[in-house]
Amino acid sequence: MHKRMLMTAAGLIAAAATTARAEDYVGKTFPGFEATDALTGERFSLEDLRGQVVLIDFWATW
To answer: What is the rounded distance in angstroms from the CA atom of residue 11 to the CA atom of residue 8?
Structure first.
């Protein structure tokens, strides 16, 4: 029981120490990247969408 509690505490401390704050990224430029449109198969980049509102949704089922 003691070992489990110690491991849980160590994991929580490690997770808290490595989390990024949103304030660290406010006002910073998002790095450019390219992706493929799932419907058309065309390649596009963020530069192609300059001046438009872009919502990037990183999602997975795992």
So the answer is: 5
